[in-house]
Amino acid sequence: MLMRVASLFLYSEFDGMKLEIGEFLKGLLNPEIRDLKDEFFDLFYSRILPVFVDFLTTSKDAFAAALVVEILTMCATTHGFRVRHYVTHNAVLQTLLPLFSSPSKALRLAMIKLFRTFISLNDENLNKYVVRHDLLRPVFKCLESNKRDNMILSACLDLLDQIVSKDMTNLLIYTMSKYRPLIAEGPFASNSTMERLKLKYELAVPIDRLARRENLLARRGKEMGQKKATSEEGVEKRRKSD
Question: Could you tell me if 155 and 112 are in contact, meaning their C-beta atoms sit under 8 angstroms apart?
Answer without folding.
Answer: yes
